[in-house]
Amino acid sequence: MMSNRSTSRRFAPRPYQETAVEQVLALYRRGTRSMLLHLPTGSGKTVIASLVIERLLPSLGDARVLFLAHRRELLDQTAATLGAHLPALRVGVEQGARASAGDAQVVIASIQSLVQRKELFRPQEFSVIICDECHRALAPSWLDAIRHFGEKRGDQALLLGMTATPRRTDGRSALEVFETVAYAISKAELQDLGYLVPIRYWTVRTDLHLDRVRRAGDDFQVASLSAVMNTPAVRGLARAAWEQRARGRKSLVFCASVAHAHALCADFSAAGYRAAMVDGRTADRAEIIDGFRRGDLDILCNYGVLTEGFDEPTIRCLLLARPTTSPLVYNQCLGRGLRPAPGKRDCVVIDIVDRSTTDLQYGASSLAGLPRAWHGRGRDPAREWRSVKQVQVTDPAAFLAIQRASSLEEIQDLLMELPAEVVLAGLDGEPVPRYRPVSGPRAPADVEAIIRAILERAGARARALHRERHPTPELPAADAESRPAVRIALASPEIDNERFDFLLWHLERATGWSVSWEPARARVRARSPRALLSSMLPDGHRLLRFERGGDAGGVVAEVSGVAAGELLTLERRFEAESGLKLEIRGQLGFAF
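^ that's the sequence the OP posted. Answer follows.
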C-alpha cells in the first residue's frame, strides 16, 4: 500500500479536491456512512475517489473497495487513474469477459455485470462503496447492488456517491439514497479558478416543431426526434453553423439517433472534413476514439456513448444536434468540452434550438438560470447570468423590464435610456457606459475617438491602438470576413477578468469593429484569490467578506463557522496556492 508521501510526488491535488476529501473523512470520523459529492463534469471526481481510497484503506485492515459505474469508458478511465496515482494498489475490473482477481483491493465493476455476479463476492469484505454518476442509483439494479453489499457489511460501510447532477429530470434526487452532501462546488467557481474553460454559446434557431415530437420517459422519443433532426435541411443548418463558428476546432457532435449520426458524419466527410462516428455497436469504437484523441479527426459524431465519462480536454467545440428536455443529459453533454488544455481559452457550443417551442427544450441558458428564449450571441450564459444579477435600478418599471429582457444588448439599451440617478449599478456591477450602438460604417478616426472616450469613462487608459490589417483569429469565420479590427494596448496589464471582457463587448457594440486587448508579454491568467479561498472552505461555511489589505498587502477575509483549529491550515494552504498572506477575522465557530 502506498503512503501519502509517495502519492503526493505523483500528482498534486487541486485545493478544492483536498477540501472535498477532508470533508468526506471528517464526516466519516463523526459516524456518517452515506454521503454525496456534487461536482461538475471535469472537476476530477476519480482523483478525489483515489485520495479517499488511499487515506481510508490503511485504517480498514483487509477491507476492499467497490467502485460502481455503468459504462465501459468510465470503468477503463477509473482503472487508469487509480493505476497512475496508486500503482501499488491491486485493482480488478468486473465487466463483460473481464473478471477481477480474488485479491483485488479495489473492484471496479459495471452495474450490469455486478448484478448478475454479486453472489460470487463476499459483501462483508467491502468497507467502501463508491458510485460514479450516482444520480442513477435510484434505478432497481443500482439499489439491488448497493443493498447487497452495504447492508451485509453493516454500519461500518461507507457509501459515497459522486455526480454532477444530483437532481433527476423526474424530480427525484440522489439524496434519497445518499444522506448528506459532503462537498459541492459550481461550474462557475471552477471556471473562475481556471480549472474549467468558459463557453462561447451560439444557437441556431429553426422550426423543429418539437411540440409534435413524442416523449419517452423524461426526454424526446428517439425515433420521433430523429425524424425531425435527420433531414437534409436541418443537417445542412448544423454543418453550416459549424463552418461559420467553429471551423478548425476539434469538435464532438451529439446526434439524435444512430441513423442521424451516420448521416451527419457522411455530410461532413463529403464536404472534405475528417469525420467519423461511433455508437454503442461500433466494433472499432476504441480505435476511432483514439484517432480522435490523437488529432487524426476533425469531427467525431456520436449517439449514446460519449455523453458521460468521456475525457478529452482538447475538444474545442460541441455541436449539440440533439435537442433534449433533460437537464441531466444536457449538463453531461456540455461537460465534455469544458476541461482545459494548453492553448485552449474557451469551448464553442453550437445548439440547434426550436424557434417556436423553446419551453420544451433545455439549453445552456436554462442551465445558467436565464430565460429559455435568451439570445447569448457567443457568450457564456453562466457569466451573463452573474452579470445580470448585479444590475441595480430604483425604478420598479425598469426592474420588471430588465427581468423580461432576452439579451444583454436589450438590458444595456434599457439602462442607457434611464436617468443616471436611477441606475445604481449596470451589468457586472459596473457604472453604465453610455454610447449609441453602431448603425452603419464608422471611419477609423471616429472609431478611435469612441474607444478612447469609453475607456476614459471606465477608468482604463490606453497606451496605443493598433488597427489590424487582417482579422483576428479568435473571430468566428462570418465576422472575420467582414469586420475591421483594432487591438488596444492598455496601461494596466490586469485585463484577464470579466470587467474587461464586458468592456470589449461595449466597445464592439459602439464601433461595429472587432476589438481585442493586446496581450502583455508573459502574462499568465491569474486565478481569482476570492474564488480560490471559496473553493477551500468546508461545506456549510460561507465567505462573508473578502478584501485586499492586512499585513504585507495580503488578504483579509471573514468566514462563517470556521473552527479555531481550522484557521492555521486554511491560512497556510491559501498562502501556498496564491502567494498572498491570509488573515481571517470574526465569525468563528467551535469544534467539539
